[in-house]
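Issue 218. Parser rejects a valid record. Input:
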Amino acid sequence: MKLKFFFIILFFSCFITVFAQEKKEKVTELKEVTITKEKKAIEQKADRTIFDFAGQAHLNSGSVLEGLKKLPGLIISEVAGMMYQGKQLDVFMDGRPLNISSNELNAFLEGMPANAIEKIEIITQPGAEFPATSGGAIINIISSKKAKKYMSATYSSGVNFTLYDKLRARFNNSLLLSAKNSLFGWQLNLGQSYRESALWSNITKRELNTTTTLSDTDADRVSRNNFIKSAITFDFEKDRLLFNYDLNYNKTSADTEGFGEGFISNDASKTNTLRQDAVATYQKRFEDKNKKLDFRFNFAQNDVNFNLDSRIFNANVLENTSKQDYLNFKIDYSQALKILDEGKVSMGTFVDELTFETQNFGVTNLDYTRRTASGYLEFQAKYKKFDFIIGGRAEDYRITGNTDTDELIPFKQFRFFPNATLQYNFAPQIFFNMNYNKKINLPSTSSLNPNNTNYQNPNIEYNGNPQLQPTIFDNYEVKISAFDYAFIGYNVSVAKNQVINRIFVDNNQVTNTNINVNEIKIHNFNIGMPLPYMLFTKGLKETMKFDFNPDKINFLYIYAGYQIHQIPNLDTQGFWMFNLMSQIVLPKEIKFVANYNTSTTRGNYFYFVSTQPFSESFDLSFSKKFFKEQLSVSLNFDDILNTNRQGLTAVGAPILIESKYDTRRFGFTLNYKIPTKNKLAKEDPNLLNKEKKEEGTVIGN
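Output the parser choked on:
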């Protein structure tokens, strides 16, 4: 471990040494100084962090899940969930909640190719216009592209390989078509992915100086994913009517051989997931461009079928299904407001209903219904160098249901969720920000599901908890940000009735489930800053004179974060997370990116203690654009040191959980914009995603 860490530090030190010694002529002739309108790799805004996926070869070479694991400050664990800078994440796709979590969410993100994604928004300070059920923060995965006048097309493809016990292949293909005429515009994005992967996992019990292997499994998995994202829009002078329909079908099969105390197994599992999402949006516009009125209706359906068969006993071990229907209707209105120097008022209403039914061998064992009605009001104002936001959201909840043996504990409450932001702007793009917001997180249907939709053997069992109750969050944050890249911040999230994952042991039987904990506080300190290599040759004073785009120069981006979970009656330890990302523009405009993620061990992540770093990986990528930037080609080499593995011990149980995927991979990705003969082609707004945008805000960024 120390040798590998030394190698990484030596690698990045060589970059600093070599590229800090560039000749002056080379620095002053940098072409990127004149290019300022391209998308930035990372943007730090007042309420969110935006990561550009489409333009970053080291992020879009594999699946969405693999790309997300490379983002600084983001933790993704199959056991412990998804968290960004100490805040639990609610996952949205194109501005709409997915309402799935755990292994269902991982399977969905694993099946979606990253080169179908435009950008990732992590909204760390969700305002009153977002549902209070978003919890601590929101990650919004935006898959849309720009629609163009007349006909345009983009083809994307990727091929990757891993080589462990055998060669495994992964490939994806997608095609984006868009067009617009005098009557309407349309977009169609369709694609598929094929993914072979391996998972080695081991669960041991260490008690009374004795180590017992409870489960040692070797899983060979094949996943096939097909998706369609479509949109059609009609323009009526200033108004617009927009229809979206998305379909995602995933089929995953796994052959798992295992052994443990008292058993040997050879199992075959199949998981089929069908997700459909339909949206109708009407956008009313006025003479005053600051006045907007939007109506949106959304219906989504998610069906999951899971089967586990034993080859040894020639028997069906598990046959579990679930069906989730979700519909919502929302109205959003905003307009400028004459208050102080300038202002804005936003208001709206939102109603939704979610029904969830699960079956085990054809017998219904959970029937769950959730209804929410809400309204919000938010004011924004600017006075000299100060920006203010104050708002509130009122929500009424009705949660009922029953299992096959009992009724669920009902949750019928009316709650108010305030939010406030104060920002001081030292200069353009340099600000100090303070925020408070109160949120709620309703248990996901994945965590409620009493059935096992993962894997089990005689010693291991996974299941949800239908009696889980919602979690209430009080979130506090302070942050200083400069030029969209550099920042330093601290936040604390106080959660009451937090839903967490727990491991329980009864003799040699291990149960993985979810429970509520009365209160947990999560403290998070983080800092990020770019370090241009020209700083070592020209000095700070001369470097600050350059008006350059950081994405077009040679630089090292450094991120560090410290996180500690405070849990009553438990002595917890914190852990550090680190990310180093170096970009070098080589001759012939070849972009070379080296990325390294790691974290310290022995820190508490809820009721787990890490024995391995979270997603430790050292990745390299080379990318170049050809034919007037119509063709983009990238080569990627991920986890070249083969360090990406997980290891966790369970608090209160003598259990060690270890797992390893075939993460060391190599491959290439290409994106080709099929040229159009029409030189008048112009970009129109996104069609595949039409959620509330940021341009109406008065907060300075």
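Fixed in the parser; the record now loads. The longest helix spans residues 2-19.
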